[in-house]
Amino acid sequence: MKIAVINCGSSSLKFKLFEMPGAKVLRSELVEHIGEPNSSVANHFEAIESLHVNFSEIDAVGHRVVHGGEKFRGSVLIDDAVVQTIRKLIPLAPLHNPANLEGIEVVRQKASNIPQIAVFDTAFHTTLKKEAFVYALSYALYEKHDIRRYGFHGTSHACLLHKAAALLGKKVQETNIITLHLGNGASACAIKKGKSCDTSMGFTPLEGLVMGSRCGDIDPAIVLYLQKSLHVNAEEIDEMLNKKSGLLGLCGENDVRNIEKRTDEAAKMAMDIMVRRIQKYIGAYMVLLEDVDAIVFSGGIGENSSYVRERVMNNKILKNIKSLVIKTDEELQIVNECLEVLKK
Ligand code: AMP
């Protein structure tokens, strides 16, 4: 059986074709700069067209969908009602859910008979309890406006959980780990008995760790100060916090390969701040989990930077905990979930 995985980002499209079971990759493609000025690819429809996919040989298509809100607690077969709900969630993920819907729509137009499955970035974190997902704001903001921690990178944390459990020789439902997805976007997850029990990203992917260009945790009063005293408007603040902060804001670039080689104060400070934030989350999650089988490093930085890994683990308490380096594979996780949905 051939299953395709389509991962539509706001300006990119990843396509992978798998032979299942066994997950042999038959084809892997990446289309970038979709809809950008001077790009030959105007939208996700054209991106798929450019790949000349033969849909008649494909048995099912899995889509990564960023935001499933509280509605989707797992992967689902896509029908009109599912599409409607993903559309309703656009205000919570204004850049990503529309791109994901475009991917779904393209396949519907090209091959309406193929079953399509939605795999949500948020679903893995729907096991969070209220004490983990409710912010200490007026409770009405959660009840009436859905303001809560959702968490993201769920397919990656789920993939890391399954791979770590196999490496540790444990059942998934008995595995207690802290997973660190450290890429340009970064998040930590405390996994207790195979379930996400806390995660660093929140209402949006802005909260938590220091990222390539996102600030992660800050005092929310800074936003008010920027607005009132420095007269920066909401769009500008959004741009500042998401695109001009993190490693980029601290030392002028976000490529850890280069930052590691630099010897100047700004580069050293950026690394110090990033490492300290990771350690703070590990410390907090160790207390929540009580038993920690391993700390798992993943993502472009976690998988490749021994410098960052050693800096994080160079600590009297952490020295006694096993650390694992695991390559995350979101498409593999998606295709495995597709198979589970199709079996039902
Ligand atoms: P990702 O978003 O998962 O692709 O990760 C991107 C981040 O991984 C960037 O900050 C890269 O600098 C970093 N990265 C990739 N390869 C390496 C490497 N060999 N050493 C250190 N950092 C790396």
Automatic annotation (TrEMBL):
Which EC number(s) does the record attach to this protein? 2.7.2.1
Query: Which reaction is recorded as catalysed by this protein?
Result: acetate + ATP = acetyl phosphate + ADP
Q: Quote the catalytic residue positions.
A: 121 (proton donor/acceptor)
Pfam families hit by this protein:
Acetate_kinase
Example GO biological process: acetate metabolic process
Where is ATP annotated to bind? 14, 181-185, 255-257, 300-304
Residue sites binding Mg(2+) per the record: 7, 330
What is written in the cofactor note of this entry?
Answer: Mg(2+). Can also accept Mn(2+).
Record localization: Cytoplasm
Listed under subunit, the entry gives: Homodimer.
Name the chain's protein: Acetate kinase
Organism per entry: Sulfurimonas sediminis
Q: What is the phylogenetic placement of the source species in the record?
A: Bacteria, Pseudomonadati, Campylobacterota, Epsilonproteobacteria, Campylobacterales
